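re: that chain from earlier
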Amino acid sequence: MPVRIDWDRQPVSIHSDDKSELKSLIDFLKIKHSIRKRSIIMDDRESGGFLFFIYQPCDPRWIAEFYQG
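^ sequence. v structure.
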C-alpha cells in the first residue's frame, strides 16, 4: 500500500494505514540514504492511520525507489 506524503508542509509528513510499512520505509531511508532526522511513528489524529515527520532533505525519488525495489 503506497504512502501519502505531504511535501507542502515543514517538516514533510509521511502517512500510511500500515505502521509496519512506515517502519520499513524508515529503515530503507536510514540505510540507503542516511535519513536519520525523523520523528517516531505516531497515530494520525486527523486522517487516521499513522505518520512520521522527516526533519532533513529527502528526495521524492528515494520514496519511489522504496516501492520499485
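The beta strands are 4-6, 12-16, 42-43, 50-54.
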